[in-house]
Design goal:
about 375 residues, alpha/beta, Rossmann fold, Dihydrodipicolinate Reductase, domain 2, 2 domains, 6-stranded parallel β-sheet, 9 helices, 17 strands, about 25% strand, globular, oxidoreductase, Gfo/Idh/MocA family oxidoreductase, Gfo/Idh/MocA_oxidrdct_glycsds, Gfo/Idh/MocA-like_OxRdtase_N, NAD
Length: about 375
């Protein structure tokens, strides 16, 4: 049995999680870490027992690397992913897949021409938490799904991040920072999105850094810091989503799906595990009566790991000659949805989402990341 060689490009904070998880999967083996700063790449490689390090070019030139993991900043995602495709390697990229649709379309076209795969975060949608809820919905636990509600609201990252400016600049804000998690989950559960309407606001034109060496300094806010979106799915289902960096009340990780025969709580889409529970409709009820709606807990099924799960599933899908689940096409559809929401908030009109994706199957319950499966 032989493991698939993996190269990491980008050795920032998130690389720790990827390197730790990928190092525990027998089906893959990290061969090299690359970064704009080779010293930082070397430190990460030594920390996680990776044999080689260097620059992004060193990763692309490595003959023993079949898949490149792109952990660079969002503005560089398409450029680095394209370099990997041109080097003949499959790609797993952190979210978002890119910032502009034209660049993403060209990337996907190049990969298809060369018979290579693009996978895109978030892979939290493949975790046991959301997958338990997905299987419950597919089995009819809430009847026919009708509509959903999602919420992500916080005070904002300027409260805790020592350098939060980039999270308030173009291509970021709560929509583009957290939207990939929530919209990917909604598409996985309810199917592709057809139209988006949104309203946004920028509560303040400047924000203050609260911690770190630059605490007390101010920076400009370039994007809406609160956005409310209505999504209409190809199936006719609907969802209402809130994304905010302006709320004193911390409330995030909320996904509820309501159907003809019940409602279901879905785990936080930014986590791989969490609570799934169903409430059933009341049979009768009189005005003024006190009542209690019991929640039916659904036991979580599957092995909990973390980031890197999507890459592993893609590697196995390539070996089995089947589509992988966290695909570049899904990442592109979610990106178009977020761009449409941003445009709708500016124009006041609903915006059509022109792309679509095929129905996304559930992850098999017996999917074991720690098994060796590749020939």
């Amino acid at each position: 049995m032989s493991a698939v060689g993996v190269g990491i490009v980008g050795s920032g904070v998130i690389s720790d999680t990827y390197l730790a998880n990928l190092g525990s999967f027998p089906d893959v083996e990290v061969k090299v870490v690359g970064d704009l700063n080779p010293e930082r790449a070397r430190a990460q490689a030594e920390k996680h027992g990776v044999p080689r390090s260097g620059t992004a070019a060193d990763v692309m030139a490595s003959d023993d690397v079949q898949v490149v993991v792109n952990l660079t900043i969002p503005a560089a995602h398409v450029e680095v992913s394209t370099q990997a495709i041109e080097a003949g390697k499959h790609v797993w990229t952190e979210k978002p897949i890119g910032l502009e649709l034209d660049g993403v379309d060209e990337l996907l076209a190049r990969a298809a021409e060369r018979g290579l795969r693009i996978g895109s975060a978030p892979d939290t949608v493949l975790g046991p938490g959301l997958q338990t809820a997905k299987r419950a919905i597919q089995s009819g636990r809430i009847g026919e799904p009708l509509f959903a509600q999602t919420t992500f609201q916080t005070q904002g990252p300027d409260v805790w991040h020592p350098g939060p400016q980039f999270l308030f600049s173009r291509g970021a804000g709560p929509l583009f920072d957290m939207g990939p998690y929530y919209f990917s989950a909604l598409v996985s559960l309810l199917g592709p999105i057809a139209r988006v309407g949104a309203a946004g606001m920028r509560a303040r034109t400047e924000r203050e850094i609260r911690t770190g060496p630059n605490a007390g300094s101010f920076f400009p806010v370039e994007v809406p810091t609160t956005l409310q979106a209505i999504t209409i799915f190809e199936s006719g289902r609907q969802a209402q989503s809130t994304f905010s960096f302006d709320s004193a009340l911390e409330r995030h990780g909320v996904i509820e799906v309501h159907g003809t025969e019940g409602s279901i709580i879905v785990p936080d889409p930014n986590r791989f595990s969490g609570r799934t529970a169903v409430v059933k409709p009341l049979l009768t009820f009189r005005d003024g009566e006190a009542f209690d709606q019991p929640w039916i807990e659904i036991p979580e099924e599957g092995v909990v790991v973390g980031r890197g799960l999507g890459l592993l599933e893609m590697v196995r899908a390539i070996a089995e000659e089947r589509p992988h689940l966290a695909s570049g096409e899904l990442g592109r559809h979610v990106l178009e949805t977020m761009i449409a929401a941003d445009e709708s908030a500016q124009s006041g009109s609903f915006i059509d989402v022109e792309s679509t994706v095929a129905p996304i199957p559930a992850v098999p319950v017996d999917f074991d990341p720690f098994a060796r499966t590749l020939p």
